[in-house]
Amino acid sequence: MRVLAADDDQGIRNVLERCLKSWGYEVTTAEDGAAAWRVLKRWDSPRVVIIDWDMPGLKGIEVVRLLRAAEHGEEVYILMLTGRMDKEDLVEALEAGADDFLTKPFNSRELQLRLTKAVAFRKSIAARQGVKRNSLTGRAPPSASILGGKYRIEKKIAEGGMASIWLGSHLALGINVAIKFMKPGLAEEPDYASFEREARAAAQLRNEHIVHIYDHGITADGVPYLVMEYLAGESLGDRIDRCGPLAPIEVAEIVDQTAKALVEAHNRLIIHRDVKPENIILMEAADRPHGLAKLVDFGLAKPKTLETTDGGLISGTPSYMSPEHLRAQAPPNVALDLWALAATAFTALTGSLPFDGDSLADIMKQVCVAPPPVPSTRNPALTPAIDAWFAKACAKNPADRFSTPQELASTFRAACADVPAISASGAPIPKSPRLRGLAPTEPDTTALGRDTLVDRDPPTSVRRSSRIRSSA
Questions:
Q1: Rounded CA separation 447/455 (Å)
Q2: Which domains are seen in the chain, by residue range?
């Protein structure tokens, strides 16, 4: 097995080279980050890397980010050498793509033990590459099993129509992660190719309002999975179900944060495709009275396509899809995400779906033919300014709508500025309670188990089901 050892300290490079060769590895060395990247950017580069975090010029952690963005990056096992011990630094390295850590100074026995994980990882890669893509129908590993040599699977915490979510722990860092397994029957060859491509792209997003994706792959049984930041909070959908219509200023803050997430994604040419209340998670934050909003599920496990009345195919949540996308007349683009964010704001302000029906055909009529609903008819406390904003945001013609997330969010905040915090019933809207703190090992299964990171139908007590099944 070939190993790249990169460190700007000649003495450490000599120790690494001597140990690795004595254990039977084929060794390539690099004296700095630039030299390491020249080796690693090649398709035939070593698939095990030992790299120092702090090197002059191109730092080791920057090399890790470059490598993970490369086409072959997910096949490489990365062991990071570092003198840093702060948990924040280790999490940063994990987010960048490091698989394990070795703290300086180290001894040869510790290094050898770390490399056994790398060998196990490479064997799992070989097994995954032997899986037929059209037979990815296995099941998620059982509790207490080890995934990819890096994660212990603790317990299932949520399940939806497309995926199951498990609480896991990162063996090297000791932190909780959420592991999402695609369900059997959804991982056909075209779907998996898209899943893999978008996972690599979404993992490069760096924004406080976007869930961090740490890792992805296929289990030995052929189940695609994502490893992501564990979120302890509630979805916007849950908050609406719990509180009813939210105060406009609260909705404006959530829309503004979500728009910032979309700006980051769109700048990297990534379209979310399924913005809706269930995919916005609200976490407790001292400086944000309504919570820190995080956007999850960047089209990474798309629902099965639905056939439209015109014979086209769509994927997504119909009640939050624009006319041109619902008719399958346009590919996913910025306009789809902006329409969906406006529809999400409508739901938060009124406690009801903007476009609803008992079948896909009914929803298509509402979205594509009928005039857009007027928010103040659902919540009389809302003003004409909000009505006008929604009419523009959800105009039938894309050219008549807002063109950027920033424009949509800033005009919405202005429209909400003078609205009193009164609900549709005439009573003051209760302030959404602060989210309770959770111990790291005790997930909020009420929140994460219901909506967080999983597609599911909202309770019918407040909002009617927003997803029309393909059999409808």
A1: 13
A2: 2-129 (3.40.50.2300), 133-229 (3.30.200.20), 234-448 (1.10.510.10)
